[in-house]
Each structure stands twice: as structure tokens, then as C-alpha cells.
Amino acid sequence: MKTARFLACCAALLVPAANAIAQSEAYPQRPVRIVVAFPPGGAADFTARLLVQHLQPALGQTIVVDNRGGAFGNIAIDILAKATPDGYTLLITADATITVNPSVYAKLPYDPRSVGAVTQLIKFANVVVLHPSVPVKSVLELIALARTQPRKLSYAHPGVGSIQQLSVELFKLRTGVDIVSVPYKGGGPAMVGVASNDTQLSFATPPSAMPHVNGGRLKAIAVTSARRSAALPDLPTIADAGLPGFNVEGWIALFAPTATPRGIVDRLYKESARIMHLPDVKKGVLAGGAESSGTPPEATRAMIRDETAMWAKVVKTAAIRVE
Fold it and tell me: pTM score, two decimals?
């Protein structure tokens, strides 16, 4: 009897695993829709189309990219959160839309718990850029200047609640400096603001900043990640420059509704991770100032959980709010 019960328990434990395998092998049986939380032309759209180029033949089905920009990602996230959890509606979006929106918006149209991570696709260090007239060559010199001239310096960012804004606010909390926030309508206009010296600095994405740096209109002094960026290897990190532990990375990830069967999530993760590490894909991502990633679902969820908690503290301290 004991042996029979033991075998029955083993069989019961094997059923979910068998179901998961069957689901992943059968999926997909019709076209898949990937909702992108930003308009065409940006980093999220670029990543989505790069992934789809290889994921479509791997899955053997048409994949439709559906750009739904607006409300800082909330429109697209709402679509995913309320979709049937069957793997046929997916989402590609960026860092702050997931980790910051729950803190800065008084009310969201969706339950953040309904949004499940599949994998981080790419990651990138933001770059600290200044107008050439700012008389500093390092992060420590920037801190010293800002301390002697409180509220004389201002920083540009692409909108309230963006990682670019939050990373500077974290920098301010860590150093005690007082630098004025100046929001712009996007990363491009923010860089024009610094290049024209309307503002003096920014913690910007490499694609928006480096053309101005290469053209001599801005100067770069550091990156915000914990380790040097493979895309910008000559720049020191803020941590190396005197702020140990400072680490802010932008990222773009793939999501599915939380209740999506594990077998489908696992297949999407494995295929996406494989694709992001194909030599031509890695080369294309690096050329855009980022690095290929491909973290497992559990690690991606843990990263999102930690960043959400960190940004919630920064948002509260800096009193950042979007109504």
C-alpha cells in the first residue's frame, strides 16, 4: 500500500510537468501579437522587431508587432494585463513603465500583478553627459561644483517618472546636491536642451546622447551601471568615480499575462534568450549602445521586484507624481 501511494504521488507530480511540455510543444497554433509600449523608431520597437525577425520562424507562426504608445506605457500594459493568458498576446516595454509607474501614478487602469515577466531582452547603461562649457571632467568634480552652486545646475530628462529622471534623483539623494529637474517631451528634445545649454547635464540613453557626444556638442564623463558598458568601454562608472554601489541600468523586456501556462512562458524565454545571443543580434544591439541579455523568468521578476522597491523610495523622497 505504501508503495502504491508513493507511486501515485510521483505520478501526480509528473502531470503538471507533462502538461507544461505539451502546452509548449503545441504552442503557437495561430498568429501571435506583441504589443510594444512605444511608437515606432525607439529602442523598444527596435528590440521587438529584431526579436520578431528570428522568433517568427522559430515558432512557425506569424508575429504581429502592435505599437501602442501613450500614457508612458500604461495603454500597452493595460492591453496585456487584460488579455487572455494563452501566449497569443505579449508585451515588450521598458524599465520605468513597469518599475516606476506603480509609484508615480495615483491610479493605474490595470493590476500590476497581472503582468508577468518572461525575460529581459537588452540592458544598457545610461551615460552622464554635460554641456561642454560645464567646467568638470569627472563625477567627483561635478559633485563638488553642484555643492558649491546649489540649484544653479539643471538636468534634462525625457519626462516625469522616466529612469533618466529617477537616476538623477537617486544621484542627488546619494550626494546631497541640489540640481533642478527640467522635463522634456522625449529623449531627443532633452539632448537638444543640454546641447544648447538650456540645461547643463543629463543621465541619458546612449542612442540619444552619443551622436551629440561624437559631434562635440556634449561631453560624456561616466556611465550609470555597476560595471563598465561594453558599448562605451572608455567611460568609468559612477561607482568607480566615487559613489560605491551606484547602479542604474535601463532595460527592455518581454512580458506575458501572469497566468500564462508555464510551458509557454518557458518556450518563449528559451527561444528569446537564444535569439538575443545570436552573433548578428548581439552585434546589432551593441551598435545601438546596449547589451543582449536573456535572463530567466524568475531572475527577471526578482530584478523587477527589487527595482520597484528602490524607485518607490526615490519617488516618495523626491515627491514625484503624475496625476
Answer: 0.88
